[in-house]
Amino acid sequence: MPFVDNIGFLMSRASGQLVRATNAALADEGLRVRQYSVLSLVCESAEGESQRDLAEVLALDPSQVVALVDDLHGAGLVERRPSPADRRTKLVVPTERGRAVRARATARADARLAASLGALTEAEQGTLRSLLARVVDVELPPRAFTDR
Amino acid sequence: MPFVDNIGFLMSRASGQLVRATNAALADEGLRVRQYSVLSLVCESAEGESQRDLAEVLALDPSQVVALVDDLHGAGLVERRPSPADRRTKLVVPTERGRAVRARATARADARLAASLGALTEAEQGTLRSLLARVVDVELPPRAFTDR
DNA sequence: TATTGTTATACTCTATAACTATA
DNA sequence: TATAGTTATAGAGTATAACAATA
User: Fold this and answer.
1) What is the pLDDT of residue A145?
2) In what order do the strands lie in the sheet with B78-82?
3) Which one of A24, A78, A108, A112 is most buried, counting C-beta atoms within 10 A?
4) Which residues of B fall within a CB distance of 8 Å from A8?
5) Nucleotides of C under 7 A from a protein CB
6) Rounded CA separation A68/A97 (Å)
7) Can you tell me the distance from the alpha carbon of B64 to that of B46, in angstroms, rounded to the nearest whole number?
8) What confidence tens digit (pLDDT) does each residue in B59-117 have?
């Protein structure tokens, strides 16, 4: 099979396209997609998310989360609150402004994403989403100790 | 829909996983995935590929292709040949060693990719490939001049 | 004038290691 | 002894601009 049909190549190409498109859509709100992902998660959380949990969900190193939260805090969109349960842990919570920016950002990003996926029907987008979710879950294959 | 179900996010996460896995698989051959993609394309080509064509197929800036070809040339895997048709153009062609390295690299990369996609059946992988190919093709939507 | 390859530069993303304060 | 957050650093990837040679 020719290289241009390689799933890894196509995935990388598609991902790059979507990231560029989303960054362009978010530029008006002063966000990039990585900062936006953190803001979205904390806005969806009831009591705030610890930086450790953010790192795990986003598959980022904790040190990267520090920088992203710093960015958002500098823009007045989130705050760090001490966790009542563990004094090592900081819960990241959105400010009022953070919630407002997130709402606008989501509208813009979703519209742009829909345009980028315009070649696919709604049903196909659902199929793609579930296939991707299953690829993402396979971090630790059951009996693939050989290559670790 | 929660952020973690966003297709752009899932795509970025999946792409990162596949790139990391492929880079790990290629490390023994002294390659990274971007160099490998150039090597693969020139090995598949009958008369060599111009750097401009490589940039277009891979969706890279021509200046990035210069660096990748430099890397491969430094490793003795490709050569630049003058095009008989256009003296501006350089055709990138593999060396004998380049072809041998590419064969081994492809075996390793394909095996690792198959493992990373192990959660999907062959049919599902085919579906994923075709969906991705259609997403990638939508660089210039028919009448979306508004956002350019 | 436009295109191919090239150099240069800056910024973003990724990967590691080491440190602190807590547990 | 282990974990959450932090700082620092280096390398890889991305994005632009400008230039020489050639068309």
Assistant:
1) 36
2) B49-50, B90-94, B78-82
3) A78
4) 15, 18-19, 22, 33, 109, 113
5) 3-9, 12-18, 21-23
6) 17
7) 23
8) 999 999 999 999 999 999 999 999 999 999 999 999 999 999 999 999 999 999 999 99
Domain boundaries, chain B: 16-105, 117-148
d(CA B106, CA A9): 13
Among A15-19, B21-25, B128-132, B138-142, which is the least confidently predicted range?
B138-142
Contact B17, A8 (CB under 8 A): no
Indicate if the pLDDT at residue A90 is higher than 70: yes
Residue in the block written with tokens 């949990």: A53
Query: How many CA atoms does the CB half-sphere of A108 hold within 13 Å?
Result: 21
Instruction: Give me A85's structure tokens.
Output: 């349960």
Distances (CA, A) of B7 to A22, B53, B78: 11, 29, 37
> In the structure, what pLDDT confidence band is assigned to residue B148 with cuts at 50, 70 and 90?
very low
Confidence of residue B143 (pLDDT cuts 50, 70, 90): very low
Flag if A139 and B17 touch (Cβ within 8 Å). yes
Task: Please give the model's pTM, rounded to 2 decimal places.
Answer: 0.93
pLDDT of residue A138: 78
Confidence band for A139, pLDDT divided at 50, 70 and 90: low
Query: How far, CA to CA in Å, does A89 sit from each of A53, A69, A73, A92, A98?
Result: 10, 14, 17, 10, 21
Provide CB contacts within 8 A for B137, sequence distance 6+: A119
Transcribe A93-120 into DSSP letters: EE-HHHHHHHHHHHHHHHHHHHHHTTTS
Residue matched to tokens 């842990």: A89
3-state secondary structure of A82: strand
Considering the domain delimited by B16-105, tell me its CATH architecture: Orthogonal Bundle (1.10)
